[in-house]
Amino acid sequence: MEYNKPLPNIIFFVPDEMRGDTVSLRKSNNPFINTPNIDQLANDGVAFTNCFTVNPVCAPSRCCTFTGQYVHSNSHRSLYQLLRPHEENLFKFLKKKGYEVIWIGRNDLFSQKAGKLSVTKKISLSMLSGDTKELITNMKSNPFKKEDRLRKSFYYGERTKTQAKDIDYYIIKRGLEYLETNLNKPFCLYLALGFPHPPYVVEEPYYSMYNRNEVPAPIPPKLDDKPEFMRLIHERYGLNKLVEEDFREILATYYGMITRVDDQFGQILAKLKEIGEYDNSAIFFFSDHGDYAGNYGLTEKWHNAFQDCLINVPLVMKIPNIQPDEKIKDQLVEIIDIFPTVMEIAQIKSKYTYFGKNLIPLIKGDDKIHRDAVFAEGGFNIREPQCLESPVKNPNIPLMGIYYDKTNISAEKPSTVARSAMIRTKQWKLVIRSSKDEELYDLIRDPQELTNIINDKAYSKIKEELKEKLLRWYLNTSDNAHWKKKREI
């Protein structure tokens, strides 16, 4: 594929924990939320409404996205197994190609040595404001007393304008400053935000932007046939004491956080246009995973949970010189498909083994199906204690206290984070777990995944067919032999 020289710039804009159903796409995807800048990128490029992450947790998802691998083929299973120096990744390939690779924001991707090998420059937290202590001091702490029903819900509500000068504020500020410099071309700008990751908190005008009575009603907590971890979260977080109005409040605040992200994204787009680099830039907007935000009577996320609100993520992109046959695509795609797509855009050829599938044929209309199923996995074995989050010892400590129950549930009952895998087609979703807490849903009859039909004999054949397909997926992607044909003695 030929591009006009120089190579296009590449911008990755990655909010954390943003659901796929929270992008408006001019009301066609979500009529309740406002995301005009993401919508504009979709109008100039293409949006995928059925994009799925391959892991419901930050670090594994990002490690897979930027290597084109699955969790079981690259061993990045938890928050602690980040990319190592010897591993290939998309940024390393871009840097070798001659791109100036600029990383601004959160990590959840590189070990320190791997980061130095893969990026040209990282603008770290200490460089964001000049005073890291001020950033931490300005963070809003849990506003609810110990006995309040919202204390452990991850809902913090409205914050002040001073508190709004958070890490994301400085990430965007530094991104804009970089774009105002004498740019070395081509460049790759990676902006990794913290929003809309809980706690659910935002300032005005975003806090009051959404009418609590008009946002979608949460999916109800019908948990009798669901995995044990869902019932434990519901009870231990005190979410069983909340009513529908509370969950609407959480969702409306989450929507406000997302519109703030959209506004910040708009600042980057405006700056690219101002400096004349918008047309020559491949721009990717996507997230690592989603959030319950009240669905099933739950908040935040879980290591081996695969409801669509957690694994369906936004993916919107614009590629120079590529004209989509449609602006909105509903084919099944995986977040790891970004890897080979960018490799082609940057004209990088390599024998490196990856499992993502290039999206460009799908965008142009040459590929009508792309994938007939998507896969995800999560959780750990008991023999992998290094993967478990360290238990928070005091629920009342600032910042981390809110994670007391989450980290202690998994420590007390490792079966709640047992290794698990999912296969999802347009109609079916099967989840198998080493803990035997399995799930099967008919997504056409039951799109909200309310009724688990795993034990219904009428679906035995479907279950076996999906298990067979899942087995063959594992067989074909079970490891990643080093791609260089070289024997070292």
Give the helix level as a range of percent. Answer: 25-40%
- Might you state the CATH topology name? Alkaline Phosphatase, subunit A
Radius of gyration: 22 Å
Helix/strand/pairing class, anyone? Answer: alpha/beta
**Average pLDDT reading:** 94
- Topology pattern, helix = H, strand = E: EHEHHHEHEHHEHEEHHEHEEEHHEHEEEH
CATH C-level name: Alpha Beta
Separation, N- and C-terminal Cα atoms? 39 Å
Low-confidence stretches: none
**Tally of individual domains:** 1
Q: Tell me, what's the shape?
A: globular
Looking at CATH, the homologous superfamily is: Alkaline Phosphatase, subunit A
How many β-strands, per DSSP?
15
Reported for the largest beta sheet, the result is: 9 strands, mixed
Task: Specify the CATH architecture.
Answer: 3-Layer(aba) Sandwich
Beta-strand proportion: 5-15%
Please describe the structure with a list of short key phrases separated by commas or semicolons.
489 residues, Alkaline Phosphatase, subunit A, 4-stranded antiparallel β-sheet, single chain, alpha/beta, 15 helices, 15 strands, 9-stranded mixed β-sheet
Write structural notes for this entry.
The protein is an alpha/beta fold and 489 residues long. It has a single domain (9-223, 244-371), classed as Alkaline Phosphatase, subunit A (3-Layer(aba) Sandwich). It is built from 15 helices and 15 strands. The strands form three sheets. Strands 1, 2, 3, 4, 6, 8, 9, 10 and 11 form a nine-stranded mixed β-sheet that branches. It has a four-stranded antiparallel β-sheet with strand order 12-13-14-15, covered by helices on one side. Strands 5-7 form a two-stranded parallel ribbon. Helix 8 (167-179) packs parallel to helix 10. The longest helix is centred in the middle third of the chain and has 31 residues, at 244-274. It starts with 8 loop residues before the first strand and ends in a 12-residue tail after the last helix.
